[in-house]
Design brief:
The chain is an alpha+beta fold. Helix content is 28%, strand content 22%. The chain folds into three domains: 37 residues, no CATH class; 76 residues, Muramoyl-pentapeptide Carboxypeptidase, domain 1; 118 residues, L,D-transpeptidase catalytic domain-like, CATH 2.40.440. The chain contains six helices and nine strands; from the N terminus they run αααααββββββββαβ. Strands 3-2-1-9-4 form a five-stranded mixed β-sheet, with helices on both faces. The radius of gyration is 29 Å and the shape is globular. The chain starts with 7 loop residues before the first helix and ends in a 6-residue tail after the last strand. It holds the Pfam family PG_binding_1. GO terms for molecular function: peptidoglycan L,D-transpeptidase activity; transferase activity. Pathway: Cell wall biogenesis; peptidoglycan biosynthesis.
């Protein structure tokens, strides 16, 4: 088989095509007799293009406008434009919110769970706890299924989500004292470990949830379920004798 010689002009043109296609390498082909110009620098993608691409990757949920408003009221997620239109800023804020409160998937979609959690947190009135003016008080709002911590009459830990006793296993309202604390308590009735256990009445107390906390239909058997980071935080703050104030009534009980 005869091998045809490639002319310098043809070789140079072919190489220019390759370089222009994105290889970004300046080579001089054998026998070309002249250097090939380097490829031009890649174009810089503008901020507007990046922003549009980021927004496009985050779908707009049914409750977009409501969630925007709730997150503004809760605070800590930036200022969202309440217009019901997804943007890169909205997407990032919603993802951050979902990650903080254990909502899966944390995709930035303003779905029913995200809306429900944001609505409950935005509606929680810390003054209703009527915490002591001195010392630490753990507050549990049964109505909104939220909880927070106050110290010397001021909010120490902002409201977070909880899941309390379901029907026939209600978490009782009232003022109690923590009377037992263990980092890992075994539940004889339910055969499960309860991390960061802080008991305040009977067999009921604070502990890290053992299931997905947003399965609200499930409920607890009277305990105050917490997300892992919240259970750990509460345990670090509590001690024997710490006050627990439970008020309101869980819907459906």
């Amino acid at each position: 088989m005869r091998v045809r010689r490639v002319s310098a002009r043809v070789a140079g043109a072919a190489l220019a095509t390759l370089v222009g296609g994105g290889l970004g390498v300046a080579l001089t082909p054998a026998g070309a007799g002249a250097a090939v110009r380097t490829a031009p620098a890649a174009k810089v993608v503008t901020t507007s293009v990046v922003t549009k691409a980021a927004a496009a990757s985050c779908a707009t949920g049914k409750f977009q406008k409501q969630v925007e408003g709730y997150l503004n009221k809760i605070g800590g997620y930036g200022t969202l434009k309440v217009d019901g239109k997804q943007s890169a800023t909205d997407c990032a804020a919603i993802k951050k919110f979902q990650s903080r409160f254990g909502i899966k998937p944390a995709s930035g979609l303003a779905g029913p769970t995200t809306n429900d959690v944001a609505k409950r947190l935005a509606a929680s009135n810390t003054a209703k706890c009527k915490a002591k003016k001195t010392g630490l008080t753990f507050c549990v709002d049964l109505t909104h299924q939220t909880t927070w911590v106050m110290k010397n009459g001021k909010v120490l830990v902002k409201p977070t989500v909880t899941r309390t006793g379901m029907n026939n296993y209600e978490t009782p309202a009232g003022t109690f004292k923590i009377n037992k604390r263990t980092k890992k308590e075994w539940s004889d009735p339910y055969h499960v470990w309860l991390p960061y256990w802080q008991r305040f009445i009977g067999g009921r107390g604070f502990h890290q949830t053992t299931t997905y906390i947003h399965d609200m239909w499930r409920g607890s058997h009277g305990c105050v379920n917490l997300l892992p980071q919240d259970a750990k935080k509460y345990y670090s703050l509590g001690k024997i004798g710490s006050t627990v104030k439970v008020f309101g009534r869980r819907p459906g009980t």
